[in-house]
Every structure is written in C-alpha cells, then in structure tokens.
Amino acid sequence: MSTLNSELSPASIPSYVKRSFKNGKMQKVDLRPGMVLFTVSNYPRIDRNGQTAEFWSPFKKFKHDRGFDARVEAMKLLSGTDRADVFRSLSAFFGKKPGGRYALVAKLRVPVVGFMGPIRRQGKSAAQISAATSGGDSGSAAAAAPGSGKNLIGYQIYIPGLTSGQTIVRARRIDLLTL
C-alpha cells in the first residue's frame, strides 16, 4: 500500500498553509491507517463541492495534542463561552471561515504523510477574552482559557489530497451545541 503525500515537503506547501501554523512552525508526520481525526465545520460532511477538508486535528492524544476530550474539558471550564468559539480557537476547521457547529470525525484508510503544528489563533471572542482575564475564584477558568498564557494549545495537521470514501471516511458527526 503506497503512502499518500509521500513526496510532500516544506517547499511544496502553499504560503496560505504555512501562515495557518503559529509562527509557521510545523513538522512532517507519518499517519497510519485507522488514525481518527476531526475537523470543525458548518457543514455536516467532510467534503463539499468536490473538495475534502485538508486541515485536521487528532481525535485522540497524538504528539503534543491532547485530543478532542481535552477540548471538551476546556469548553466546560469556560461556562458561558460559545462552544464553537472554544473549538474554533483550538481545532482545525473546514471552510472559508473558522468555527462551525459540527466536529466531523473521520478515519484514515491509507498511510498518509502530513504536516503538523500549533494552530495560529483565528481571533478571540469577547467571552474568551473576558474568561482569560477574569480568573474567577480559583483561577482555573483563566488558566484554561484560549488566549491566556496557560491555555491548551490546539494543533492541526495539513493533509492535502484526501478523497472522501477512499483515503478517509467519516466515522461520525458531533453536534458541538449538544456537548
């Protein structure tokens, strides 16, 4: 079985992709078949108009990323903050604008090479800024707030060339409004 993107190198990555990583930092990663990923989207599918999402986040702990459940925990610490705002700040997204209602969970069907790195922040909502600076009684909300000094950092993996149903298949859709 050949590896998708085996020829991918830093020189072949478009500038808009490099800008989506914090400080342009990313590393080449080998991903195995069966790895579970997710992306946040306003659309309920991993493909739209013939295009499949290229930016994904690890669903389970992988390298420096603590996974989907860590994002849910951060969201719970920030009660009163829009759930989509938390996921927008900490997760890869599919579409022209960051954020969305759904976490689209998918599984790789083939070995893949991608580039992984911390997500460059796409902006903070007023609620996130307030949570990051308020501290509350214990300070735990401020410690976990996106945009604060001790926040959970989200990572993304750039994987071009995925084909829905062939190289990647949707496993489920999670409505972020129900978490």
| Low-pLDDT stretches | 124-150
Over all CA atoms, what is the radius of gyration?
16 Å
Shape: globular
User: Roughly what percent helix?
Assistant: 10-25%
Order of helices and strands: HEEEEEHHEEEHHEE
The number of distinct β-strands equals 10
Mean of pLDDT: 80
Structural class: alpha+beta
- Biggest sheet record: 8 strands, mixed
Please give the alpha-carbon distance between the first and last residues: 38 Å
Identify the quaternary structure here: single chain
Question: Which range does the strand content fall in?
Answer: 25-35%
User: Given the structure, what is the number of helices?
Assistant: 5
Please render the helix and strand layout as text:
Layout: H1 15-19, E1 27-31, E2 36-41, E3 47-48, E4 51-52, E5 55-58, H2 68-77, H3 83-90, E6 93-94, E7 102-108, E8 112-118, H4 126-134, H5 140-144, E9 155-158, E10 168-175
Parallel strand pairs: 2-6
Antiparallel strand pairs: 1-8, 2-5, 2-7, 3-4, 5-9, 7-10, 8-9
Helix pairs in contact: 2-3
What does this 3D model show about the protein?
With about 180 residues, the chain is an alpha+beta fold. The protein is about 20% helix and about 25% strand. It has 5 helices and 10 strands; from the N terminus they run H-E-E-E-E-E-H-H-E-E-E-H-H-E-E. It has helices at about 15-20, 70-75, 85-90, 125-135, 140-145, and strands spanning about 25-30, 35-40, 45-50, 50, 55-60, 95, 100-110, 110-120, 155-160, 170-175. Strands 1, 2, 5, 6, 7, 8, 9 and 10 form an 8-stranded mixed sheet that branches. Strand 3 and strand 4 form a beta hairpin. Helix 2 (about 70-75) packs across helix 3. The N and C termini lie far apart (about 40 Å). The model is unreliable at about 125-150 (pLDDT under 50).
